[in-house]
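Hi, here's the filled form for the chain we discussed.

Project: internal
Contact: R.S.
Residues: 180
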Amino acid sequence: MTTTTLSDKKIAIMVANGFDEARFVEVQKMLLAINARLKVIAPGPGLAHGRNGDQAGMSYPVDAQLSETLAVDYDGLVIPSGDQHISVLSEELHASRIIRAFMREKMPVLAQGNALDLITEIDNSIDAESLKAAGGSANHENLLWVADDFPMGEAARKFGANCLAAVAESAEDDGDSAAA
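And the returned structure, exactly as it came back:
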């Protein structure tokens, strides 16, 4: 049986205080529209506070702390843009651990805008300049980078396709190992 939707697929959205609320809400809406189950993961418990331009944004409940999160519990990872939150995440050892695990296991990752800087800081095999030069979006293995002004509907569609491809590949690998 081939999976054709993201129903029951758990997608982690990694944030810290100061994330770009507009980008967060856009990706949240688009992934919910294609039936993904979203979980907000952050350095601390309680609420994560967004930014709306130069002003404080709304606060969103945190579903899991980074220190208690394992990549294997999720089918995909989204990191929204936002200077302040990227700075916080770059200092967070558990964020690095989770991102490394997603990249190592070739699990789907969607990085919006300057979230690419965080990922390339952790995985220096990724050439950020080449990805950015490709236009509004680009892939590097399991990583999908989209510019801040890239249409989120298309980004969610591409990310969803990456998640479904990973699920199919995982099922193939399970079948191969069972046959061996």
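Let me know if anything looks off before we file it.
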